[in-house]
């Protein structure tokens, strides 16, 4: 994945996680073993079915959930590896902001700085 694709994927994850209901859906799926049927997810929330499916679709489009259809049932699986994009971005805050190796003379991030701080 090139830098532009990585940033677009990160934006999708952050946007999906911006809504509290979506964060709750992810936590629920995680604590229920990483997979849940659509009806079981919907049953845990007071939203109408169309609202729940919109939230699930947003999580799916961000790559945080993957669906599997069997007959009339759809099961959603948590995609934890997608959260690595967010973890990677948050690691920037483990670095000192004034590190000369990270900034150019104008105080902007150097173009040659690795995108995977560790």
UniProtKB/TrEMBL annotation:
Coiled-coil residue windows: none
Gene Ontology MF annotations: DNA binding; DNA-binding transcription factor activity
Transmembrane segments: none
HTH arsR-type domain sequence ranges: 3-97
Gene3D superfamilies: Winged helix-like DNA-binding domain superfamily/Winged helix DNA-binding domain (1.10.10.10)
InterPro entries on file: ArsR-like_HTH, HTH_ArsR_DNA-bd_dom, HTH_MetalResp_TranReg, WH-like_DNA-bd_sf, WH_DNA-bd_sf
CDD domains per record: HTH_ARSR
SUPFAM superfamilies given in the database record: Winged helix' DNA-binding domain
Region (Disordered): 99-118
PROSITE patterns, A to Z: HTH_ARSR_2 (PS50987)
Keywords: DNA-binding, Transcription, Transcription regulation
Protein name in UniProt: Helix-turn-helix transcriptional regulator
Source organism per UniProt: Eiseniibacteriota bacterium
């Amino acid at each position: 994945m090139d830098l532009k694709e990585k940033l677009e994927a990160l934006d999708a994850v952050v946007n999906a996680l911006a809504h509290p209901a979506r964060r709750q859906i992810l936590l629920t799926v995680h604590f229920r073993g990483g997979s849940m049927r659509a009806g079981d997810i919907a049953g845990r929330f007071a939203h109408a079915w169309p609202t729940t499916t919109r939230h699930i679709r947003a999580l799916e489009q961000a790559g945080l959930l993957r669906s599997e259809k069997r007959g009339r049932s759809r099961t959603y699986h948590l995609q934890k590896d997608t959260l690595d994009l967010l973890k990677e971005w948050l690691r920037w805050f483990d670095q000192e902001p004034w590190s000369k190796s990270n900034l150019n003379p104008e105080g902007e991030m150097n173009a040659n700085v690795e995108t995977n701080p560790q």
